[in-house]
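Appendix B. One record, verbatim.
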Amino acid sequence: MRPLSIHLLAFMLLLLLPALAAAFEPARIVVVPGPVSATQLRLEVSGIWPDTCTPQLASVSSQGRDVRLLAVRESAGCRSTPTPYAFSTEAFEPQQLLPGEGIHRVRLLIEDADGSSGRLAGFALLQDGTQTAATLETGFWWAEQGGEFDGGPGLGLSVETQAGLISLSAMGYDAEGRSAWYFGAGELHDGIARLELGQFEGGAGPFSGYAAPESIRFSGWVDVEVQSPSRAVLWFSRVDAGGTALELKPLSITRFSFAQNPGEALLGRWLVAGSQASERDSRWLHFSRSEEFEGGFVLHEADGQARLQCDLPGGLSAATPSICRLELDDGDAIEFSEIGLRRLAGWDAELRRTVAVRLD
């Protein structure tokens, strides 16, 4: 095992120790192959309930990329003994329950038999395997203003991705308004990561001598949903104060750009090439001017050999583009659907995988 992996494993075990003693454990939701047909899938659910009246699956439904599992439990004659439980859905065809492509959001809701006390008991992100999700660019991130799940500007994030691993530091404030920062690390696979968050306390700042943090307090989880190299949704979750339900808070984030507008953030020298060797000729481009239009912008190449037209999502003037189309003077055209500040990826007119990398 690599030294970095050993350190990450030790960190995860340290964070998990407080959680193992809890009476309520949020449900683990995974997708597995169906028992009969390899084309079918099932959702398996397991967790720990705080008493002996454990939930049983009642229904499964979906709308778009949101999947809802409803379980019901008896509420009479229960003993206050934490009890493991597990159940699974019937086998289904992928498009039956996971319509569309990409990442799906699955929630487990539990109700008492009389219909009261509805609560969230589990959450998971599942990739249906029909779309290869991008990784996130390393750098500084913040809340996306006007995104799907809006948030204020009081939270900054530092993201590092290397060799299939992701580390995330969230810098914000606690309930009393004091500055606080949290850290999580783990594997990023198919655009999804689930990280345990630890809050570091009692360390030292830049104006004092070194002191290791006095404690690392387990502070819940964050599920990372990659939407593009420069855009993601973070699903923060924790067990509520009563210890019987899961609190869930989604936040749309975007890669921070120092430029005043999205077009200026992409100006500079780029190398365009096929993702596989000798698939297509490489080409240097130098975008020197940005021209805005309603709903996006156009970058002009310094020698007039190319133009890159980019559309902004939902008319958000400060967002990174959702799609860009490169038109070259020789008639070549490339459509980029994975947009970052330092890397673009997409397909050319001959369906060859093509990337553009910023090198200045």
